Amino acid sequence: MAWPVLGLLVFVTVIGFENILYPFQNQGLSVVFSWVFLLLAYIVPYALISAQIGTTFTHDGGGLATWVRHTSGDTLGYWTSWMYWSSTLPYLIDVSNSVIVAFSWLILGDNSLDRHMSNTWFGILTFVVILIFIILENLFTRSLEVMSLIGGAAMFLMGVLFVFMAAAGVAKGFPIATQPFNLAAFKPHFSTHYFSTTGLLIFATSGAELGATYIGQLRNPKKEFPKAMWMLALMTGFLVIFGSLALSVFFNANHLPADLKMNGSFYAFKMLGEQWGVGKLFMYMFAGTQLVFMLAQLAVLIDASSRVLSADTAIQFMPKWLLQKNKQGRPIHSYIFTASLCLFLLLMSSTLPNINSVFNWLLNLNGIVSPYKTCWVFFAFVSLRLQQDKFQSSYVFIKNQKLALFVGAWCFLFTFVCATMGFMPQEAAWGTPAFMHQLLMNIVSVLVLFGLGFVMPVLARLELKHQHHSLN
C-alpha cells in the first residue's frame, strides 16, 4: 500500500462532512478560531504521536490496546481495550441514526421525518438496522470494505466541492449569510458552554491511531507511516477550517436551525444547488453518498467493536462465555452483548421529546466517551517516552524528552478536561428539567458503558473459581 492511500483510508474513517456541522452549531463562526488552535496545538501533535508509537510497534498489529499493553502492562491494556470497545457503541447508534436520516432525505426530499415518525419508532428502526448488520455481518464486511473506501473518498470530494463552490459563489457576488462577517465575528466567547462543547471537536477529529492497524501493509513503514499521518492532519485541517467558513456563507452563524446537527448537511447541499440553479441535485448526490458512507461505516464498526473483546484482550480479564465463537468463527455472545447495550442506550434516548433531541443527545454522548478513549493514546506516548531506552522508535516526534513529555501531558490533560466538561448538556438551559434529565442520562450512560469493565474481571474470576470447584 502506498502511503497516500493509507492517508486517505484513515482520513475517511476519521472525519466526514457532517463532523464540521456539530461544532459549528455549538460555537458559531468562532469555531474557526477553535479549529485553527486545535490544528496547531492538538491535531498535528496527535497524528505525529500516533506515528511514533505506530512505528515503534510495527509487528504487533498496532492497536491502541497493544500499545498500552507493551508500555504499561496487561491490566491497563485490558482497560484500554474495554474503553475503546464501549466508546464505539454510541457512535454505532449515531451512524445507524444517520442511515435512517439519509434514507428519509432520499425518499421525502426534505426534513419532515419527525412528522412521519415518532422518536419511539426512530429508536426501533435504529435497533433494527443494527440487528440486520449483526446478523448479516459476514456478508456486509466482505462486500462493504471496498465501499467504505469508495464512499469515504466520495464524501471527501463532496466536502471539497462544497468548499470550492461556496468560494466561487462569494467571488461571483452571492451574499454571505453570516453578518457581520469580520474579525470580531471569529472571536470566541470563552464560557462553560464553549469548553463543554470542545469534546465534540475532539470526537470529530479522533481516530489517527486507526492507521496503525495497516502499518504492516506499507512498503517502508518507518518512513512512510509518518508521511501518511502528516497527510491526515493537513487534510483534516483543510476540511474543518475551510468547511466551517463555507458553512457561514449559507447559514447565519448567529441564528442557526435547531436541527442543524441532524439535517444541516442536507440543508447545505440543497442551498448550494439552489444557488447554482440545479435545484436539489447536490442534495440528492450528498444523501446517496452519505447513505453508502454510513452503511460501510456500520459494517466495519459492528465487526471491530465485537472483535476487540475477543481478539485484543488478555484472556484472564474476560469470562469465557463472552469470548465463545460459533462454527463460522464469529463471537456470537459478543454480538448479543453489543446489541443489548445499544438497546439500553436507545431505551434511554426514547425518554427525550423528539427525534432531533434523540439525535443530538446520542451525538453529544460521543463527545464524552470518545475523548476519554483518546486519552489512552497520549498515556501510551508518555509511557513510551519515559521508557525510551527500552523501545526503539524509527520515527521520533520531538527529540527533546522533556518537551515531548510536556506535549504528551498537555494533550492528555486537554482531552480529559474536554471529555469531562462534555457531561454538561448542550441543548438545554442550565438548571432546567431538560438540563437535569440529560445530565443524569449522560452520567448513567458513561457509568454503565465504562463501569461494566470492572464487572468482567470479577465474572472471569468467579468462572475460574467455579471450574476449580468442579474439577475438585
TrEMBL record:
<feature type="transmembrane region" description="Helical">
    <location>
        <begin position="228"/>
        <end position="251"/>
    </location>
</feature>
<feature type="transmembrane region" description="Helical">
    <location>
        <begin position="281"/>
        <end position="302"/>
    </location>
</feature>
<keyword id="KW-0812">Transmembrane</keyword>
<keyword id="KW-1003">Cell membrane</keyword>
<protein>
    <submittedName>
        <fullName>APC family permease</fullName>
    </submittedName>
</protein>
<feature type="transmembrane region" description="Helical">
    <location>
        <begin position="439"/>
        <end position="460"/>
    </location>
</feature>
<feature type="transmembrane region" description="Helical">
    <location>
        <begin position="358"/>
        <end position="382"/>
    </location>
</feature>
<feature type="transmembrane region" description="Helical">
    <location>
        <begin position="89"/>
        <end position="108"/>
    </location>
</feature>
<dbReference type="GO" id="GO:0022857">
    <property type="term" value="F:transmembrane transporter activity"/>
</dbReference>
<keyword id="KW-0472">Membrane</keyword>
<feature type="transmembrane region" description="Helical">
    <location>
        <begin position="403"/>
        <end position="424"/>
    </location>
</feature>
<dbReference type="InterPro" id="IPR050367">
    <property type="entry name" value="APC_superfamily"/>
</dbReference>
<feature type="transmembrane region" description="Helical">
    <location>
        <begin position="152"/>
        <end position="174"/>
    </location>
</feature>
<feature type="transmembrane region" description="Helical">
    <location>
        <begin position="120"/>
        <end position="140"/>
    </location>
</feature>
<feature type="transmembrane region" description="Helical">
    <location>
        <begin position="32"/>
        <end position="49"/>
    </location>
</feature>
<keyword id="KW-1133">Transmembrane helix</keyword>
<feature type="transmembrane region" description="Helical">
    <location>
        <begin position="332"/>
        <end position="352"/>
    </location>
</feature>
<dbReference type="InterPro" id="IPR002293">
    <property type="entry name" value="AA/rel_permease1"/>
</dbReference>
<feature type="transmembrane region" description="Helical">
    <location>
        <begin position="194"/>
        <end position="216"/>
    </location>
</feature>
<keyword id="KW-0813">Transport</keyword>
<dbReference type="Pfam" id="PF13520">
    <property type="entry name" value="AA_permease_2"/>
</dbReference>
<dbReference type="GO" id="GO:0005886">
    <property type="term" value="C:plasma membrane"/>
</dbReference>
